[in-house]
Amino acid sequence: MSEDGRNILVGVITLIALFMLGSLTFGGKSIGAAATGYTIQASFGRIDGLNTGDEVRMSGIKIGEVARMRLGDNFAAIVDLRIDSPIELPTDTSAAIHTDGLFGSKHVVLVPGADDAVLKAGGKIDLTQDSVVVTDLLDLIIGEAKSNAAKREKAAAEQAAPQKIAPGSETPSETSSPTAPGGLLAPLLGDPADKGTNP
User: Fold this and answer.
1) Is the dihedral of CA 80, 85, 87, 89 positive or negative?
2) For residue 33, what is the enclosing H or E element?
3) Distance in angstroms (rounded) separating the CA atoms of residues 122 and 171
């Protein structure tokens, strides 16, 4: 066999070995997951950023993964969650989509309830919280900040504006003087206009 033929044969054998190794690795995981786990469903309004294979966590520990995502009735997002077999979830368990950090990957967080009955394979989680989109959250924060700034500017402008006196109102000096007409000492001093006419 020529040198080129041997090189081709070695390359083909190497590719076959790598393919078989990969099949055993990923196929073994799938077989083990199917044999030891069960699948439940959760319905969300939106699942932005969530992907198949993302983790399902409880108390910060991975207990499963996202197996499938599809569009259901009323355009809701139906997510199939594969849960490890030894873990039993109460029927009132809630599910929420969280993010690792601000721009990290998504994962599903399960919070167990207090019901004695447990979810079986094919069961459905009714209490869910949708995925939070970072851009929507930033827009909400920026909008709230602009609204507060506008309120502060309006209040400052109202305080800086001069206060207008209504027509016909008296100044404080006229009403507070005791010798002014109508004041407290007016009866004792008499009317200044009368003093000019009396001898």
Assistant:
1) positive
2) helix 3-36
3) 83
